Amino acid sequence: MEKEEMEKQKTKVVTKSAIRFSNFFTKIKVLANKVLFPDDIKCCFCGVDIPNFDERPYCDRCAKTLPFNVGHKCVICDQPIESEAIVCDFCQKEKRYFKKAFCPFLYEGAVKKTILAFKDNNQRYRAKAFAKIISNCLSDIKIDFVTYIPMTDKKQKKRSFNQSQLLAEEIAKILQKPVYSCFEKRRDLKAQKNLTYRQRREALVGTYTLKQVKLKKTDNVLLVDDVITTCATVGYCSGLLYPKVNNIYVCAIARETFKGKNERKDL
Ligand SMILES: [Zn+2]
Ligand SMILES: [Zn+2]
Fold this sequence. Notes:
Rossmann fold; binds zinc ion; 4-stranded parallel sheet
């Protein structure tokens, strides 16, 4: 009996030291990750150390110079408008299947540079900071789940990640809501730059499809993209979801304003 008790004590000591040992390694791992991927101590635009990432993931200097999308803008698509109008020309003429878009930045300067680095240089750690900034600008809206604009399998394999999915996952963590993959992208489109708005819209038919996802008529959805230019993609995907849910909101890191004559003529 005494021997049995001694064995028990011995096991306890071994287990305790094993736990201590594994805790020690977990701490080392967390620390190493912080050193290797210091995403929560530095300004996400210029890289200087900042005091409180969770409060604001960029520094004072960037706060003064970044192109925030805070001027007079369309109440639906968040595009800056020069006139006094409340809704832009596009949203007046096109049915919008989403209720409102939220884009904290304009797609220019340091924001454009950082987004391109995030996508093309595999800087996926930036998703956390962008998600924080986006979620801060989502006003009082009710969200039941988050979804995102997909990439084709081929492109995702090449890049190794989908930036909109990463953003959606980080935003969902902040909102404490699930992320569902609702869409599939069947083919890559040719360069869109020289296409008119109507041509862009036509090219989307059959490119994005709705997956078999369990949706409820009461669901309020947040659809995430990285940059919104014409609203053609988010508009088209919202249209696929529209008959099956309650409200669709859209968000992206930045809003690119389209000034091409082509676009205006083709309204
Ligand atoms: Zn900065
Ligand atoms: Zn608009």
